[in-house]
Design a protein that fits this description.
The complex is a heterotetramer, with two copies of chain A and two copies of chain B. Chain A folds into two domains: 79-221, Methylamine Dehydrogenase, Chain H (7 Propeller), CATH 2.130.10.10; 233-381, Methylamine Dehydrogenase, Chain H (7 Propeller), CATH 2.130.10.10. Chain A has one helix and 31 strands. Helices cover 3% and strands 46% of the residues of chain A. Chain A has one helix at 3-14; strands at 36-37, 47-52, 62-67, 72-78, 84-87, 93-101, 109-117, 123-129, 143-145, 151-157, 161-167, 172-178, 182-186, 192-197, 202-207, 213-218, 235-237, 240-244, 249-254, 261-262, 266-267, 276-278, 284-287, 292-299, 309-316, 321-332, 334-337, 344-349, 354-359, 365-369, 375-379. Chain B has three helices and nine strands. Chain B is globular. The chains are: A mainly beta, B alpha+beta.
Chain lengths: 381, 167, 167, 381
């Protein structure tokens, strides 16, 4: 047999699927493998979603779906340029909010909401939206899904600020709402969203059943950005947004009404805590059921608000008192709390491409999930 | 024989353009074990000599026994398994091949290294086992190629190792 | 005043759709130094206090004096300069701003941090200086945004620091 | 002044260009900077092109243009999925041979040749080619430009093998040439190219002035891939291709005729070199003017052909004798020799994201260029 024949025969081999009926075992041996594509069960409370921005390129984002109880990777979603992620409240669908250029870095810009089946992770459909979404190192609240899962809201900046509304049921873009001077979308209710304004106020936009703006109310400043700005990534649980400021003030806003309502502010710093500050990317997390707040802390001076956190400080939200200080094995950039009865602290160590887990109750180190690229955001179902 | 090779690969290319390609494969009646397996036979002989202490237990490590010629991100670390694609990824109908000796039963198995396609790189558990790996002019033994021919897109996600048969 | 802000940003957005946007900018007669500079003034006061030993010589390092609030890959390491885009990249007509004290003349300079756009990330000399940096609801002081508004594409390549004026 | 006014004024500031005539200095001070976009001079012999595959994603390739004499980055080109790079022989244009999907990882695949002006690095035009180009961890000879700069050749695999021909003068795709059983394109002449075949032979395709195949000749096997395969990335200088095999044999083929002509083979291994092997990605480089060959070497057993090289061995090509062994500071994956009178060895340390430089004459370490991502390929003008 000549070379070409050998070549052809090996190419043939390369094309063969494992068909057990065709390749009958002559003697006891391992059976051929049957290749399948896995599917996912219903999300559990300790599942965790980690958004890898794909630095340094950021042209292709990636969402890791991880079971925090076993610290195993369950699957991934692919995205585009600086994509953001959301999940439907009923957990049936997942969304990547993407920007694509027809030639990756040149050509036509197209922004879409990519819809995935949450069980198969198969791509289902895309809804094209105006090519205006905020392009930024990923931030949680640049997109949001209303509590009933009907509308997906996308914050825009051109640099004019507005919000695109997608009807997820009809799978179509239904309109754009101007939010002058206010950015991001916090959507604790079914027919409204809140944006954060330059003056420290909150704009509340009420929607009608078609996703159009019915009412807009800009609340008075809740904090003074000139004195002590709050981080722009609050922990949003239910209808409450938990903000922490550069200097450690906690502002809890109830976003359920037509205008945001603030609870009295308090500080994470007690006597002897001088020099400690919140810092990182996602600097605050909350578990409403347990009434606890976690804040990522480091020691540093003014404008160290992005310094990695060495510790997570746990607080009783009602008593406004510290429960514990948890030293992290590896300094973290973003934290999240699972929403179950025995919450886990998830801490993203950006430079080490890993996520560490700690028990919120006693700070016990639970383990690590590594090789996560450049993980910026962490959230849960 | 060149014509034969050309026709075969053309047929693959044509089928690839249809989504129904995968269903066609079920009907393919290629008796692999009956075909002469050169140069894989020869290559495998050397491969066995080089293969050091493969493990039988942990399919998320590069030295798992089936991975003797794997090159890429292990699907086992990405939500799949040693021969399963992660959710939402498509098994490629085409693959490169290798021969790995099972450390317990002592037999040599033909292993098909099939990529899971249609998502961007998983990025975890990169392995670059090069036993029996050949240059690009022997594509069926070249693991650097994107082996997603026939899959809906040529975007590589991760790699699996599937026992095809004992040798 | 909200209306004014809205109109301004709308105008930018509209012009952005035309390639001729850059040429328009030459005709803009905005007397920057005459405008009240709050909250930048306030921010700069703190910035000065925090700014430790900037260097005057090496614009490929993060502590070069003009880079007190730079955030991104330095164009100086990518074929550009401290205020020059690398070949083939487009200077963004929009930017975030900071105030840096010159260590020799002791003056404070308003510095415009303009991204070079239209190529994928340079990937070299990443700096993340956060002096005076504010959250997203103060976008003009947020360096995490892709500051390519008005450039042909919103694809970020690298960052520059350009002296606008003495304060 | 209220918050909104302040906000507006700072946005205004953010929009200002440095216009020195508008901002007259009141007293002696640094003048405003004048922002420009740089351009490049004519390529010098010690320039070097490094292709960053953008691992792990590989969706956006990047080409670094580096002055090897000063070890400074001169500029970059952006690419797509597993792109390859070529430069026009007259150095007026550069080419990225790209694959794009309309949604990065899904949608429609489009393959294009992207044409850049070599002075401004501005994108000039694209030529669409059949979406069949070989998608592989980047290899030099998956594309080639003919010596006269007229045609750009793109090797395809579907897995059927063929070559797409682009007329660079007319900026259009002119046709596809089947190359059954043979892959890659080596193009030392104006109207021909060579491909490497599965049996160790070389297919020579002669082109007519329209870029169509006029003649095909498949030469007898030059080496036995079953016994000792040659690496598929030869150093191609002028009309000669310098191959090295897994076991260290050197095969020099003259590709100028209608059929390749081999010089007698010889080995890089002498007495006492037992256990050393070539290995890496680009394992061989040559400088024809100086008559020298560089081979990347390591100590290892069978199938260690991708092991990083600890040393570069220099040879006199005519005398077939070793000139020196150069120990690398950092093990390298790919090497290249500049084509000037005092050649530099460029050695890519893939894991360290850097390129080290050594004098070919005496092995002196010259310096390093770092932060190069995942550099796989290195070439020169």
């Amino acid at each position: 047999m000549n070379q070409a024949a050998r070549y052809a025969s090996t190419i043939l081999l390369a094309l063969i699927l494992a068909l057990p009926t065709l390749i009958a075992p002559a003697r006891a041996q391992l059976p051929p493998d049957q290749m399948i594509t896995k599917t996912l069960p219903e999300p559990a409370p300790n599942w965790v979603f980690v958004l890898d921005a794909g630095f340094p390129t950021t042209a292709v984002a990636k969402l890791d779906i991880i079971d925090g109880s076993t610290r195993t990777m369950l699957g991934q979603l692919s995205g585009g340029y600086l994509s953001n992620f959301d999940i439907a409240p009923d957990h049936r669908e997942m969304y990547m909010i993407d920007t694509y250029y027809s030639r990756a870095w040149r050509g036509t810009r197209t922004d879409v909401v990519s819809i995935f089946d949450a069980k198969t992770l198969n791509f289902q459909a895309e809804v094209e939206i105006p090519p205006k979404r905020i392009l930024i190192v990923p931030k949680r609240d640049t997109t949001a899904v209303t509590a009933d899962g009907r509308f997906l809201l996308v914050a825009n900046m051109t640099p004019a600020t507005s919000v695109s509304v997608v009807d997820l049921k009809a799978r179509k873009f239904v309109g754009e709402i101007d939010t002058p001077g206010c950015v991001q979308v916090l959507a604790p209710g079914n027919r409204q969203f809140s944006s954060m304004c330059a003056d420290g106020g909150i704009l509340t936009v009420t929607l009608d059943d078609n996703g159009a703006a019915k009412d807009k109310k800009q609340g008075k400043p809740y904090f003074d950005p000139n004195k002590d700005p709050v981080f722009d990534q609050p922990a949003v649980i239910g209808t409450k947004a938990y903000f922490v400021s550069y200097h450690g003030a906690i502002h809890v806003l109830d976003l359920s009404g037509a205008e945001a309502v603030a609870a009295p502010e308090w500080s994470v710093l007690g006597a002897g805590d001088s020099g400690w500050r919140p810092g990182g990317w996602q600097t605050i997390a909350a578990n409403e059921k347990k009434g606890i707040i976690a804040v990522l802390m480091h020691k540093g001076g003014e404008w160290t608000h992005k310094q990695l956190g060495d510790e997570v400080w746990m607080f009783d939200a009602a008593k406004k008192s510290r429960l514990s200080r948890i030293k992290l094995k590896t300094p973290a950039y973003s934290i999240h709390l699972s929403q179950g009865d025995d919450p886990i602290i998830y801490a993203l160590a950006l430079k080490e491409s890993q996520m560490e887990e700690y028990a919120a109750s006693d700070g016990k180190y639970l383990g690590v999930v590594n090789q996560l690229g450049t993980p910026f955001l962490v959230s849960g179902p | 024989m060149d014509k034969f090779f050309e026709n075969l690969t053309r047929a693959v290319a044509q089928r690839s353009s249809r989504r129904s390609f995968l269903s066609y494969l079920g009907k393919m009646m290629l008796g692999a074990s009956m075909l002469p397996l050169l140069p894989i036979d020869r290559v495998a002989a050397t491969a066995r000599a080089e293969n050091k202490k493969p493990n039988l237990d942990d399919d998320t490590t590069c030295d798992y026994w089936k991975y003797c010629a794997v090159d890429g991100f292990l699907c086992s670390c990405c939500g799949g398994g040693s021969h399963d694609c992660p959710p939402g990824a498509t098994p490629s109908p085409t693959s490169w091949v290798g021969t790995c000796r099972h450390p317990a039963d002592g037999r040599d198995y033909i292993v098909s290294y099939r990529d899971c396609c249609g998502k961007t790189s998983c990025g975890r558990c990169l392995c670059a086992n090069t036993i029996s790996e050949m240059p690009l002019y022997r594509p069926q033994l070249d693991s650097d190629l994107i082996w997603c021919f026939g899959a809906p897109t040529m975007v590589y996600h991760c790699s699996t190792a599937e026992i095809v048969s004992v040798k």
